[in-house]
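User: I need a structural model of Fused MFS/spermidine synthase from Methylomonas rosea for a docking pre-check later this week. Nothing fancy, just the predicted structure tokens so I can convert them on my end. Input:
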Amino acid sequence: MNNTPQPTAKSLISPVILFAATLFISATLMFVLQPMFGKLLLPLLGGTPAVWNTCMVFYQTLLFLGYLYAHWLSSRLGSQRQIQIHTALLVFSVIALPVALPPDAAPPTDGDPTLWLVWTLFLAIGLPFFVVSTTAPLLQKWFSHSGHHSSDDPYYLYAASNAGSLLALLSYPFLIEPNLGLANQRLIWSGGYIGLCALILVCAISFWRSQADKEDEDVLTDVGIEPPSTIEQLRWLALAFVPSSLLLGLTQFISTDIAAVPLLWIVPLTLYLLTFILVFSTWADRIRPWMLAAQPAVLTVFIAYSFINPATLPYWLDLILHLMAFFLAVMVCHGELAKSRPHPQYLTRFYLVMSFAGMLGGLFNTFVAPFIFNAVYEYPIMIVAALLLRPGFFNGKWFLQPIFPVLVLITGLTIYFTTEQLFDYLDLIGGALILLAGLSYSLRHSPIGLGVLTGVILLFTLGLHSMASNTLYQERTFFGVMSVRDTIIPDENQRPEKVRELYHGTTKHGAQRLTAANVTTPLTYYSRPGPIGQLFAEFDGENQHWHIGAVGLGAGALACYTKEGQLWKFYEIDPLVVEVAQNPAWFTYLSRCNKQAEMIVGDARQSLLKEADASFDLLIMDAFSSDAVPTHLLTREALQLYFSKLKNTGLLAFHITNRHLALKKVLADHVNELHLAALMQEFKPETDVPLVVATDWVVIAKQPERLQRLQQSRLGHWQKLPLTFGLQPWTDDFTHIIGIWK
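Assistant: Understood. Predicted structure tokens for Fused MFS/spermidine synthase:
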């Protein structure tokens, strides 16, 4: 007989490795599920920001409810009852697998789809997402009772959870999306979820065995531990709310006001998750003093150049400054949050407050800020709030800290209201603000003084930019910040001329010359010398009664190609764009050239589904969100939809101008697979005509003979699309941004 002791299940694996691995996998699955299901919804509801905003609020709300459940379970019930209830929940949640849209899911066509979307999300992924969201606080609470030598401070396991989130965030666009279609992603995720449930049950067994010799009441309480005060919990709330809001504010700001680069949103979120990994790691105490010292130093340069005088920096350096300031602000806030974490007895309450604050940050940026601000003002507001949350708020004579900033504010307002021709002193005022930004470093040990002075500087900076930008109108919706500006440019004779421009963020979406001779001349990407102008010049005389659909309105320049007897329909997702383009106070293309054009508001793909088949002679695809075409308008299914709505001789004109993506590769692959014919022109203006810009267009038809007129045209150089090799076709199941990066 072998008398060698056999290893027990308890000793087979270290509790630290077991719990950390489970938390890591749980967070990975959560961060993969969010973009995966977002892509699954894309063909149904299109790429409207309202869809993604609703999804994010759903995720944050369910995360909060998961943390609330973990808090209730671990603080009210004994170990055996906790395991029984959570095991039942795990088993019950498996009925939702594999994650998929409900059968025959279709959004309402005659009303707001928000409630339908929330209900669909709940039916499809509600249970699995809820279970995954409970894992971080519940398993850390269980580990705190494991008896391991490090169980008295289980918060370092939160670093493992965020490491999983970070891995998933970076893996999805660069590894998962390029290699797996949505169908396979759903199946693999469902298998991973079953594996996670098994690991949670192993953790539950480990927890149960460690409590076998204890009464349930001993698991619930540690005698003599004072609960956190209300003030302390409100501080947790602020320290978690500000970074959450700052993350969303920075993401929107840099994506629209600095660089409309695909996948740029990943960078702030990566830094945000990295801060959690660092502040809950064993290096936190060594890192904290460096972060506190670096924040005001970087802030001085950041305010001076990125806000007061951003034109002096290349966009990439400006972007780096914003990201550095964001990272340091979040590091300080999350560092103070981690430093103030309570005894493990109140661990779930700590995470509950954190999740509630994160949900509030999302609700504020998504639903409150767009209605009270006409630009992304919540971003600078949260920069100031982060400074106020630095340690030492009530140190010394704290009430004296705001004296200098208040004097600066009073002086500035006095100058504003008493100085005539203030516009003549903009350079002097800008220099004074830069000097103040430098002086702000001297207040680094006074959070109130530093925060208030920074707020004063930003207030005057925003006013300065408003005076200098000649902005006539600015409004904000879910779709971003829309503005109308007047700009002075040289005309053909190098004389100054005023033109009206439409901007979405910093991307120009249309322009109009205001002189009588040029007021109906299409400009920018739609100029008569350009590809779309050549298309109309070649085919205009063919039929006086064309039915034309244009996806994307802009300032309405395309309307000036209208001929009497033609029927035009514009498909525009943002109602504000329609309002601006139809208002003669801003642009007069529509009022002068085509008052009868029909405006259809909504996602173009969903709107086109309702049109009669074989009804259009020409479809113009010009839908851009900032500087990118929504991917669901570029899939094979989308192209098949367009041609189902075109007559047999119909033409599809696709605007593909893009600084970062080679969209011609996607279209070339579709043309080849669907046996269509296509020509492309990468237009470069030969003369220095105002607002005639370089632009790329592709024209597609069912038969090559239909395009001979363009191919033989003397107006421009049309050529066949390049051959593509190794590009997996874009479908509603598969798209891959990285694969077409220039």
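Before docking, keep this in mind: Residues 1-11 have pLDDT under 50 and may be disordered.
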